[in-house]
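Cont'd.
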Amino acid sequence: MTVSDLQIVKGKKTPVQRVLGVLSSSVVNVVLILVALFWLIPSIGLFFTSLRSGGDNAASGWWTVFTKPAELTLQNYANLIQNPTIMSSFWNTIVIAVPATVLVVLLGALAAYAFAWTEFWGRDWLLIVVIILLAVPVQVALIPLARLFGAIGIFGSVFGVILFHVAFGLPFAIFLLRNFFTQVPGELLEAARIDGASEWRIFFTIMLPLGLPAIASLAIFQFLWTWNDMLVALIFTNSESQPITVAIQSQLRQFGANIDVLSSGAFLSMIIPLIVFFAFQRYFVQALLAGSQK
Amino acid sequence: MTVLVDAAADPKGGEQPVRPPKGRWRRTAIIASFLAPALVVLGALVVYPIIYTIYRSFYSASGDEFVGLDNYVTMFTNEATFTAIRNNVMWVIVAPITCTVLGLIFAVLLEKLKWKTAFKLIIFMPMAISMLAAGVIFRSMFQEDPNLGVVNATIAGVQNVFSDASSYPGARPRDGFGIIAEGSTIVSEAELQTGSSQDFPLVGVRQTDLPADAAQAEPAPAANDTQITGTVFLDVVPGGGGVNGEIEQGKSGLPGIRVDAVAPDGAVRGYATTGAGGTYTIEGLSPDESYRVALPATNFDQGFQGVAWLGPSLINAVIILSYVWIWAGFAMVMIASGLSAMDRSLQEASRVDGANEWQVFTKITAPLLSPVLIVVFVTLVINVLKIFDLVYVIPPGVSKPAANVIAVEMWTVSFGGGANQGLGSALALLLLILVLPSMIINVRRFREERGR
């Protein structure tokens, strides 16, 4: 069979084959539309629930908005904004997530540079330790760090939570950035060294700018991770320093009665991650592809 | 850091023991300044805690008494912790496989889709939100009341389509008209001969709950000698007035009610269903027997009350489903990128050789994908072992014991009122031991990449 024969075989389909092809692709389309709907319904449900009064939510489900659009109201969000606990917890979430992200990126990039481009005794062994630490569950640190932070007086404050997230974000940060930094062409660094540039100068003027895509991936991953955390904050914060996840979970005990706060609060907590996600999802995917073991 | 500095000062096993060049000290200091911040944090906040947790797990609840392996024995004998371990095993078996299989199916199907980016975003989106928010969502979706939970509402809707029997929950007989309630069944007090008639004036049904086809109550037609007839009606005139027990203008018939003729031996000899005006005619009865006329309990059922999804028996399925909702997108994205990086010439060649799509997939695509599938699976297993938020958030109080997992139990015994940090440390260590195999896999993968 020559190449042209092949093309004929591929190009000309019998009418039966063509009908089958169209049928199967439309079946796939219908199935995936249904799947997508199933995946969307939970979020849509939360959204509409948050736009109905507590009374309406106690009497009927969110889908009644399709027959009674008059039920829609922004009252839950108005209440939320006037709720000092929720608002201060929202602020606390920012106060925790931003420094934790910046610190992980900074400390991780510094260490990754040393692992990628300097020689020292025991480097590979140290790197293996970092890789082992990738999969350490946070649970092993909860009890010791609660004690340690208590002893140095930061238990219950945002500092403890930030430190905790930095520590458990670092192995992945070092792993991800080192992999990226090693791909930077060595001639660039050699040329800079010959020109007399210091390691610090090389790091800030060559490595960081070149590593920006990887740093963005890491930052987005770490930011979402910290923003969405509940367990660490549940233990290491108090009612003054709690982030929004902890503030909302404290309303769970009376689920039905608090559904107005719960739904609007949960949606408020989702807004920033969703914006970050839709704006930078390519970087987020890259961070996952880089081998997330968290 | 001492190890590092000393080592760098003596790099090649004592080749240059005296006075290293000045530049080398400088260089060591620079490397140390790059590494030190991260290593200090890792050492103090990850490595030290691991060691302390190991040590602490051999001590009592208060921490001042050495108890050996007692905490580990408790872990496997205490009912709550044992349930937690058993549930974790179930999670590890069910959740990663479900996510990986769904992710694989989605990734393969979406390849030829025109709107694949949109589809990916929709499935992947739950990864961005907190498990707390996901927990709130699923807890609300699976509420038991079909008026509130969308899942039970859907089931109720489907059931209503397939069963057209009208139901009148709460209906009861008007006293003093020859009919009585026996349990949920409403029956005539007297035994009737054929050719007679029995009306059922009922109360306790709201006008607003009447079915759309309910009409003005009508008197029953006269019965012949193989029939019993009558009218089942709502003995209330809207707005008040009227005479109890009489079929009058304004009173509504109750259509769709099943009426049985019950012989003295308890057997149902015949039945009929009431029409729009509430009238019924039971035919084919024997004039030699007498019957009690009964409206069986099925007429007065509460209807579908909702599946208790959040009850102890189904709670784990619901939580795992919420996990799949979040993580199937992760599996899909990873597998899809594996697929797009794949060289398709083998597939093309086998298609030319006459292989069908299923054979191409199982014999060529799937084996080529297996490294990606393993990475996805291992990542999910590690993640599932540590599952906390969803299990903490979704179950209401009564089902919490049934849904328990190791991470939640660890939190409960150490911080959530248990005040037993010895047992908590042992549980944390169990989690660490469970992820050891994946640590080994990670290190091995790293070494292989270096070896290349």
